[in-house]
Amino acid sequence: MVISVSPLPAIIRIAAKHQLIITVAESCTGGMVSAALTEIPGSSSVFERGYVTYSNAAKIDILSVSDVTLQKFGAVSEEVACQMAQGASRAAGADIAVAVTGIAGPGGSANKPEGRVCFALFAGTLITRETINFGVLGRGNVREAATKHALKLIFLHLQSVQ
Hints:
Blueprint: H1 8-17, E1 22-26, H2 32-38, E2 47-52, H3 56-63, H4 67-73, H5 78-92, E3 96-102, E4 116-122, E5 126-133, H6 139-161
Parallel strand pairs: 1-2, 1-3
Antiparallel strand pairs: 3-4, 4-5
């Protein structure tokens, strides 16, 4: 599925202009953010790798997310998203890392309902951490909305470095 997001060419252009490397750490989006970025010509100059860490074990092994953080807050939490972004930045040697973790559905719980997605943006320091409840839109729509929001976070950060 191709995500049509107008800031995508600008993300690549601005990052290339400033020689910034972008990486992503994805859970519920399953690689959709990486796919959207690499859909743009020239993306190879700013995007070298992304991480799909769907399981807790992958988050721990690949991104160095703390098992204690996972147990205390759960995989769908801003705390885990922050550690995912930091771990991806470190692992990739990237200047900018965005992380996405959530419940695309179906299912969820009273505390963590379907459509809840947590994000973090790390660029040498934590820039943004937030939770959005997209609601019960269906699995594909939640994943698409989360992908668009992750790209928006990258774009907004890049606008601030211009």
